[in-house]
């Protein structure tokens, strides 16, 4: 079965994130996108608007030396939604992160992300990594 | 297109939830299932094992749980993601939010892991606090 266009969209966006191609990555978001970062750590919370979200991505990049990687294991999509189960690895000083994130996206008819949720299988490990 | 069997399974579990039938959960969930409840409220945390998951759901549904209206179901052989509206009233407080609920599903079509993510975590936390 051919991949749904929105699955392809998410796959491209994750590849841009991994490459650190922020200008191209920005094009995948609406101006008023909402980003829900789960957990209980300094980066957790709701980010409203593309600028706020890219500030958050900037913090993630700075704290991990740009080395955070997302490897999708499964991408699901329909015409207005997407979901990804992705292995996320990163290093920060002597801390190592290796978890699976469950991510959910709402996608508008123009193929842009309007809302996003993420939570890890081992949220304690994520909380410890960012704290 | 025929709906994926894992989507059918999750759709049935929503119908059971809305009918208030909690016992039926063991048909959908493995004995060692893990349930991640996001946020910072009385329900938040990770629940491990069928009994712990059942206890958590029983707390949510005490006195009649939230009504869950499916918005979308995405399914593959290993995973499902449900998007749904949850509405509820309790002690004069109203809950009306959208949740994304990713699942891991095993080869027998049973749920091994669930994450529970609200779009308005603050409203959700206040409601359950």
Q: What can you see in these coordinates?
A:
- The complex is a heterodimer of chains A (131) and B (129).
- Chain A has 131 residues and is of the alpha+beta class.
- Chain A contains four helices and six strands; from the N terminus they run H-H-E-E-H-E-E-E-E-H.
- In chain A, strands 2-1-6-5-4-3 form a six-stranded mixed sheet.
- Chain A is globular.
- Chain B has 129 residues and is α+β, with helices and mostly antiparallel strands.
- Chain B has a single domain, classed as Nuclear Transport Factor 2, Chain: A (Roll).
- Chain B has helices at 5-18, 50-60, 121-128, and strands at residues 29-37, 45-48, 67-75, 79-90, 93-105, 111-118.
- A six-stranded mixed sheet of chain B has the order 2-1-6-5-4-3.
- Chains A and B meet through strand 3, strand 4, strand 5 and strand 6 of A and strand 3, strand 4, strand 5 and strand 6 of B.
Morphology call of chain B: globular
- Can you list the strand order of the major beta sheet of chain B? 2-1-6-5-4-3
Most extensive interface, residues per chain? A-B, 27 and 25 residues
Mean pLDDT of chain A: 93
CATH architecture of chain B: Roll
| Computed Rg of chain A | 14 Å
- What is the helical fraction of chain A, as a range of percent? 25-40%
Question: How large a portion of the residues of chain A is in β-strands, by DSSP E?
Answer: 35-45%
Output the structural class of chain A.
alpha+beta
Distance between the termini of chain B: 42 Å
Structurally, the number of domains of chain A stands at 1
- In total, the number of strands of chain B is 6
- Beta-strand content bin of chain B: 35-45%
Helix proportion of residues of chain B, in percent?
Answer: 25-40%
**Mean pLDDT across all residues of chain B, rounded?**
87
Helical stretch tally of chain A? 4
